[in-house]
Fold this protein.
Amino acid sequence: IIKIKKSRVIINDSLFPTTLKYFSKFSMASGSKKIIIAALIGNALISITKFIAASMTGSSAMLSEGIHSVVDTGNQILLLYGLKRAAQPASPQFPFGHGKEIYLWSFVVAILIFAVGAGVSIYEGIYHIRHPSALHDPTINYIVLGLAMIFEGGALYFALKEFNKVRGSYSYVEAVQRGKDPSMFVVLFEDCAAMLGLFVALAGIILAQITGNSLWDGVASVIIGLILAFTAAWLAHETKGLLIGEAANKDIVEGIHKIASKQESIEKINEVLTLHMGPEFILVNMSISFKGHLPVGNIEKAIEIITKNIKEEFPIAKKVFIEAEPAKLEPN
């Protein structure tokens, strides 16, 4: 429990025995998986109808939307895989579990949206702008787009409803920046981009029909690609920090500091370092200077109380390590 090293007393939370294999079995928000599954089913069905409509009418915008839906379907499969991998128990090789797997696969999703979704859509749009071809009867496009808007609107409503449960009083942008579960906001971003893309595709097809110029269909495809590129860039930016290793939100760090400060035996809290090992797993490292001439038993008791209170106040603080340093003696 206690190890003396170079005049430092190092005490960790092994005072509270927990079997190693349960360290990473933190409970993922069930809402995330529900959102992903709902979006997966919807996108798989919608993509088929979009490709059928594109083949029947020759619409570039509809083809881009079909590619968009296929990419989204693949992304949701990757997110589900990431959630499954993240729930694996800890092991000697990965003592803090696999929680960061969801960050990795969320970043991969962002890259796929950019490389496949945005890249192919922009390419198709430019090709049809340079080599325009007459559109066939667009009625089937309108039907498919109408159905897609209904399905995507339902998925977006469901995603917003689940996201609102966790964002609290923060704005959507702030909630995304503070959020540590990318599987939640990745799907929200995808659904928003999908709805915007549908409106762009509809506008492009209407303009192409009214003007008789299929150039507008190609322009719509390029705009859809740019929407996907922007979405991918934002997702990559938000997930990069989590993948590298983000600290807990400021209110949690301040709360941990406040809990430790209540102990009268503490002279100074030198630092509080936190690291997200997963959406619901925070690693806490603290350096504390205790008052001089305290028995080791008193230091041990104080650390036990601090660790217990931190875990009770913040259940996601799965592991707490506290380095106890003796107070510096005043020179004679």
User: Anything to note?
Assistant: The two ends are 34 Å apart (CA to CA). Strands lie at 2-5, 8-12, 266-278, 281-290, 317-326. DSSP finds nine helices and five strands in the chain. Residues 1-29 have pLDDT under 50 and may be disordered.
